Amino acid sequence: MKHLIDPMDLGVEEINDILDLADDIIAHREKYSTACKGKKLATLFFEPSTRTRLSFEAAMMELGGNVLGFSDANSSSSTKGESVGDTIRIVSYYADIIAMRHPKEGAPMLAAAKALVPIINAGDGGHNHPTQTLTDLMTIRREKGRLSDLTIGFCGDLKFGRTVHSLIKAMSRYENIRFILISPEELQIPDYIRTEVFDKKGISYRQVSSMDDVMPELDILYMTRVQKERFFNEADYIRLKDTYILDCKKLKKAKPDLSILHPLPRVNEISTEVDDDPRACYFTQAHNGKFVRMALIMTMLA
Ligand code: NCD
After folding, report:
1. Cβ density class 99-125: b for 16+ within 10 Å, e for less
2. What is the pLDDT of residue 42?
């Protein structure tokens, strides 16, 4: 039985196969409408979500399967003090596959040790978010036609942003990727990404604090929200939250074929005027998330 806890749990070939399958699902929707008939997906969300949970549920429904679960930890027995391990063991009796999100880093890994069915990490604290990574890889591949030879700028909260950590790890396996990390000093990527990904693999990267200076170089701009819920103090959040606001003026310096990604939800970091720019890919990205989760569920249940 295979779980998906960390984006590196999937090999490059496996990722290719999942992305190919997702493309085929888009091209031939009908063909997959009963692929998971009789199967159940449980979504256990101990932390808020819109896209991830609903796209998982829509994905399972489009495959002809069923869904159960909770979207708020307060409506589960965790408020009575039940451990994640016990909850997972029980839900394993009711569902064929489980997607879970938890504010504690490592919770899905602990859950996997108790689970009797495959576990998918739908986000654990500031750590990993592998299915967002699949969504991002799918979007980059569809927009650019490749996952290699790209300059990718990550902008915003690189410290707490789990989507950033997961995508950096995943992208580090492709040829000739140049990473530009755009953040205020307080929100730079954690040391473990630096040592375990960049240093270990000899990948060069640049850390900058200005978006304007690097804009002309970028093929991909990955914007992120400052992760309010992971801050220890409100004053720091308020000071840092609007450090970067992407607008049409800033995009004047960008390549004509730049792809702008954002895992969403956005707060202020992308002005709504950018939504009409053909380079804005974040809504398509959210749409892709459903198809890649369909491909993932099918693959994990096969
Ligand atoms: C992200 C997350 O939950 O980490 N959202 C998502 O799943 N699309 C990003 C965020 O919350 O900022």
Report:
1. bbbbeeeebbbbbbebbebbbbbbbbb
2. 98
- Burial code of 179-196, b = ≥16 C-beta within 10 A, e = fewer? bbbbbbeebbbeeebbee
Give the residue whose CA is nearest to atom 11 of ligand 1: 265
* Ligand 1 first shell, C-beta below 6 A: 51-52, 123, 129, 132, 162-163, 225, 263-265
Partners of 128 in the beta sheet? 124
pTM of the model: 0.97
Angstrom distance (rounded) from CA 204 to CA 261: 22
pLDDT 10s digits, 182-211 = 999 999 999 999 999 999 999 989 999 999
Please list the active-site residues.
51-52, 80, 101, 129
Please, are residues 63 and 299 in contact by the beta-carbon 8 Å criterion?
no
Average pLDDT score over residue span 96-111 = 97
Domains of the chain as residue ranges with CATH: 7-128+289-301 (3.40.50.1370), 130-286 (3.40.50.1370)
